[in-house]
Design brief:
- The structure holds two protein chains of two kinds.
- Helix content of chain A is 72%, strand content 0%.
- By secondary structure, chain A is an all-alpha fold.
- Chain A has two domains: 4-66; 79-156, no CATH class.
- The termini of chain A are far apart.
- Chain B is mainly alpha-helical.
- Chain B has one domain.
- Chain B has 21 helices and two strands.
- Chain B has a two-stranded antiparallel ribbon with strand order 1-2.
- In chain B, α2 (17-35) crosses α15 and α6 packs parallel to α12 (299-322).
- Chain B is globular.
- The chains are: A mainly alpha, B mainly alpha.
- Chains A and B meet through α1, α2, α3, α4 and α5 of A and α8, β2, α9, α17 and α18 of B.
Chain lengths: 160, 517
């Protein structure tokens, strides 16, 4: 059960994050030597955006302390489900070049289905495999786009 | 008459079997994604961008326009039969539409939505046909200062009208603007905010941001809420036809909804939410039995559904004639134009008339196809709602990572997708609207370009923005939009305080001072 208090912390995090982003942009822009000789250089807009970010962040922080919260009367969230989806995506971007598209996409499919409460692992894996395999065929042979077949496969079966 | 000749030529383009096929694919896919929860037109067009790279631009845009219109039709089906709106433009429809479905009048609700969408879509497409050339004439008067002011206005309206807190909307907008800064500066070739990562030099792709926010963020959010929410789907039963009374109660709301939807969509006022809400309020005010509203009044389905279709046509007017996106889907379509190296605006009407007019003509055809798809075949679409949610969302994510990866064939885009997805999840939890972020990302760099051009022409004199009357007026409206609600809210809070004080005084037996409200 997430309460209004947690949501306030969330909003404070959002405000803090935007504040940090604003400062980061300002500092990075300051550190970049300017090369342009036009009237308005490439630095002005980043400064404007940084300024806007800082102002909005301060107003969000004020709202986090005293303003209305997003969901009146609490809000329930399933943290494990979020972790399954987020974890599935991490596994995919870590493995896609090594294992290839088909296994990594299948894994993602199973992870997301699990997040939504489906425990039929074998069936989900089969469906994911069909979807990943189908898209691989369509994209690589039909549309000339390159989905990785995986460096593991290329070790065993190098194409010329 | 020029317009009619151009439109006639457009029909010749749109009616070739090849383009008819793309139009049919577009409206079918559009209806499907409109029906399916968790996937909408902006996300679909974004995911299709890498696939359509080799397609003729005209055919691609005919398909995209079909998807946009189709999603407006399909969204109503989900709103009515499921207690969750399929699209943001269908939130209002869900109130009475779902109530009608509970009473076994789901078929009538679907019919008035589909026919209303057709009537509104057709009238609004006619309006688009004649308004777009007028806007082009107006645009020829615009210099960089005016364009900059117009973009500022579009950014503020998209931000100010969405969500319940201005600070949250602005936070989303500035996040988008910040993401838009990343990459090589077009005018000087200088790298900005790339932090030494070579993949960031090309900038952060709009597609990755849109897919991250709309697909990954949304899926994370739905996953987090999935255990706590129940869905009830209502089967269609009983008579499938609208009675004479249904017709007589529907046709006026259709027309009024169209009248509200098109202009509000065409103004830089941010998509379809506002006109649907306004239409609901207007119908309630005018209804003979306003007490039925909220309990299955057919007017409350007919009006808003007409309004959201009309606004879809309205949104296309500034997109095509000024290059100005006023909704998330329009922002993605602008990204599509950029992919083909095209810049929407007055020059597009001269240089690519077959694209512009072929696309507009295809909207007439698409509307007819959509009426056929949605009225007799509605039962088929309802079947889509039966797809188990685990498989639906797993599939959406597989396609999302596929789209993000195939953009540039690199893993960095998948990492950015993940980060943006987590940010999008946080935004959803905190009720921060995501549309300003997408519009800011795509419009920010264009606004900067016009801003610098204007200052280069004026040789650094920043007063050009307020001395040019059109620019000054547009900026004034933008300021009013941000400041107005703040002042109103402040006064409301003061009034509430005064009322509390008065109540306290009354309770204490010292009545007599009535605050002026």
């Amino acid at each position: 059960m997430t309460t209004g208090r947690t949501l306030r912390v969330g909003e404070a995090l959002l405000g803090g994050g935007l504040l940090a982003l604003g400062i980061l942009i300002a500092v990075e822009t300051m550190l970049t030597p300017s090369t342009g000789r036009s009237v308005v250089g490439p630095a002005l807009f980043p400064y404007l955006v940084a300024g806007g970010l800082v102002l909005v962040a301060l107003s969000l922080l004020r709202e986090a302390v005293a303003g209305p919260v997003a969901h009146q009367g609490g809000f329930e969230m399933d943290g494990a489900a979020v972790a399954f989806v987020a974890g599935g995506l991490v596994a995919q971007f870590l493995l896609i070049e090594f294992l290839g598209w088909i296994p990594s996409a299948t894994l993602l499919f199973v992870a997301v289905a699990r997040a939504f409460g489906s425990r039929r692992l074998a069936l989900n894996a089969l469906l994911g495999l069909a979807l990943a395999g189908g898209t691989f065929l369509v994209f690589n042979y039909g549309l000339d786009l390159n989905l990785p077949s995986g460096s593991v496969v290329e070790w065993f079966a190098p194409d010329e | 008459m020029d317009t009619l000749a151009a439109l006639g030529h457009g029909f010749l383009v749109a009616l070739t079997p090849y383009n008819l096929l793309w139009s049919a694919i577009g409206v079918t896919v559009g209806t499907a994604v409109g029906v399916l929860p968790g996937i909408g037109p902006a996300l679909t067009v974004a995911l299709l961008l890498p696939v359509t790279y080799h397609l003729e631009p005209t055919s691609a845009f005919i398909m995209f326009a079909g998807i946009y219109y189709g999603a407006m039709y399909g969204g109503s089906t989900t709103s009515i039969l499921l207690n969750a709106p399929g699209e943001s433009g269908s939130i209002v429809t869900a109130i009475d539409g779902h109530a009608m479905a509970r009473q076994g009048r789901g078929a009538q609700a679907l019919a008035t939505a589909a026919i209303g969408s057709f009537v509104a879509g057709t009238i609004a497409t006619v309006a688009l046909t004649f308004v777009a050339p007028l806007m082009v004439k107006m645009a020829l008067l615009f210099g960089p200062a005016e364009y900059f002011a117009l973009m500022v206005l579009a950014l503020t309206t998209v931000t100010a009208v969405l969500g319940d807190s201005l600070a949250r909307g602005l936070g989303s907008l500035f996040l988008g603007l910040a993401l838009g800064l990343v990459g090589i500066d077009m005018q000087t070739g200088q790298a900005r905010l790339a932090f030494g990562v070579p993949e960031l030099l090309d900038g952060i792709d709009t597609v990755v941001v849109a897919v991250g926010l709309f697909a990954v963020g949304e899926t994370l959010y739905v996953a987090s809420r999935f255990r706590f929410e129940t869905e009830e789907i209502y089967a269609l039963k009983g008579s499938k036809w609208m009675s004479r009374e249904d017709w007589s109660r529907s046709w006026k709301p259709w027309l009024r909804g169209t009248l509200l939807g098109f202009p509000i969509g065409a103004l830089p006022a941010g998509g379809s939410e506002i006109p649907t809400f306004l239409s609901y309020l207007v119908e309630k005010r005018l209804a003979k039995r306003p007490e039925e509203f909220g309990h299955g009044a057919i007017e409350a389905v007919a009006g808003p559904e007409a309004a959201n279709n009309a606004s879809a046509a309205g949104v296309l007017a500034p997109l095509l004639s000024l290059g100005l996106p006023t909704s998330a889907t329009a922002a993605i379509m602008l990204a599509a134009f950029q992919q083909y190296g095209l810049q929407p605006g007055p020059t597009l009407f001269d240089s690519n008339p077959e694209l512009v007019w072929g696309m507009i003509a295809s909207l007439y055809i698409g509307n007819v196809l959509l009426l056929l798809l949605n009225l007799p075949l509605v039962g088929l679409w309802v079947k889509l709602l039966l797809i188990p949610r685990p498989w639906l969302y797993a599939g959406i994510l597989v396609f999302s990572t596929l789209g993000a990866y195939t953009l540039n064939n690199n893993v960095v885009d998948l990492v950015i997708l993940w980060v943006i997805g987590l940010v999008g999840f946080g935004m959803r939890v905190l009720n921060v609207p995501v549309a300003p972020c997408v519009v800011g990302l795509i419009l920010g760099p264009l606004a900067e370009q016009q801003f610098r051009r204007a200052l280069a022409i004026s040789q650094g004199d920043a007063s050009v923005f307020v001395t040019h009357p059109i620019s000054a007026a547009l900026l004034a409206v933008a300021v009013l939009l941000v400041a107005g609600p703040m002042v109103l809210r402040h006064r409301q809070r003061m009034a509430e305080k005064a009322a509390e004080k008065a109540a306290a005084n009354k309770a204490a037996g010292r009545s007599g001072t009535t605050p002026a409200l």
